[in-house]
Amino acid sequence: MEHSISNNWVTIDSSDIMARLMYLNFIRDQLLDDDLADFEDSDDGMELAALIKVAMEGIKCADWNVSTILINENHFTEYLYDLTDGRTGPWHQDIQVENERDNYMALDFAGTTYFVHK
To answer: What is the DSSP string of 24-67?
Structure first.
């Protein structure tokens, strides 16, 4: 995956993270030692470090290697309301949202919290 992944996206697919990790690792592995330090300080190098960190946390999720969606914390409650819409009467929706929230874990991606299904 040649385009970068940003921590201001509403959702991110874990398969995109893994594809970008492989791409950036490939680029880094092609560099000579002299260029490696420059890469580490570049935007790609910093992105790689952030992606490695989030992937190491995310691997704990059951579907991480297949495909799971990370939801930005600023949109998470809205996402849960959409997910629970229609399951029960409207007066039960707040309870459903709180119950559903327990099925997610928080991940840090470059200073932004994302939630992913456990």
So the answer is: HHHHHHTS-HHHHHHHHHSHHHHHHHHHHHHHHHHTTSTTTTT-
